[in-house]
Amino acid sequence: MRYVCSVCGYIYDEAREKQEFSELPDSWRCPVCKAAKTVFVPEKRTDEPKAATSLPGTEPSARTLRTAPAAETSLPGDHLRKLSVGGLSALCSNLARGCEKQYKAEEAALFRELAEYFAAVTPAVSDAEADLLAELIQSDLNEGYPAVNAAADAVQDRGTKRVCVWGEKVTNMLASLLAQYREEGEALLADTEIWVCTVCGFVYVGDNPPELCPVCKVPSWKFEKTEGRDSA
Questions:
Q1: What pLDDT, on the 0 to 100 scale, is given for residue 58?
Q2: How far apart are CA 161 and CA 71, in angstroms?
Q3: Which of 57, 6, 5 is closest to 165 using CA atoms?
Q4: Which of 48, 60, 74, 79 would suit a FRET pair with 130, their CA atoms being 20 to 30 Å apart?
Q5: Average pLDDT over the chain, rounded to whole?
Q6: Measuring CA to CA, which residue among 151, 155, 131 is closest to residue 143?
């Protein structure tokens, strides 16, 4: 039996390792990304038949896909919601990074300025507890990503599907780290550093960043070290 890390794709092969996956201690971590044992899933067999999505000969042509109008499921604005200032800071920060990837330096600088402004006026969260954060992360994994993937499938949006692949892997890693923190407390972060991939957001705890990001495969110099962690 083989088990796959849902964060980085590392495969634990019981036959090669000479030990069943279930026999590994709960403290065992992925040797590549350090994700918890709980994020591993049984490898799907490649010889299993794929579910047919259409009858032979009825697949839409490339021209049809380009010209067919998207199905209207709701009116524009139905899903708009008001963001908190913290949410606006995160949104502008992501837009700044997107502009950087497109070599739009002026636009990136403006979005960074907005992100810093919103971050400065973001009020402290009174109920910022690990249990609540774990609940929100699990909600993203159980409901958020499946909903976005389903919406992307409905309109055949490959770009969104690719974004979800990285995003779900990073969120799985956050869930893993939070579970470890709830178990070990500050000992998890003692005498070490926290690194964040500036491309996909993958979080790594260690003295040095990994040579390659386990999620998006960029080199270590793309990682930034977090500063100013509270010791309490």
A1: 42
A2: 18
A3: 6
A4: 79
A5: 83
A6: 151
Cβ atoms of 88 and 96 within 8 Å: the answer is no
CA dihedral 186, 144, 45, 23 (to 10 degrees): 20
Q: Is the pLDDT of residue 10 over 60?
A: yes
pLDDT tens, residue by residue, 146-168 = 999 999 999 988 888 888 888 99
Going from the C-alpha of 73 to that of each of 78, 150, 155, 213, the distances in angstroms are 10, 13, 11, 38
The one-character DSSP state at 84 is P
Cα separation values, 90 from 84, 87, 122, 141, 177, Å = 10, 5, 11, 19, 20
203: β partners: 196
CB 168 within 8 A of CB 123: no
Element (H, E) at 224: strand 223-225
What are the phi and psi torsion angles at 165 (to 5°)? -60, -50
pTM value? Answer: 0.69
The pLDDT-based confidence of 73 (bands split at 50, 70, 90) is: low
For CA atoms 87, 91, 96, 98, give the dihedral sign: positive
Residues 6+ apart with CB under 8 A from 114: 88, 89, 92
List Cβ neighbours of 137 (8 Å cut-off, separation of 6 or more): 171, 174, 175, 178
| Cβ contact 41:4 at 8 Å | yes
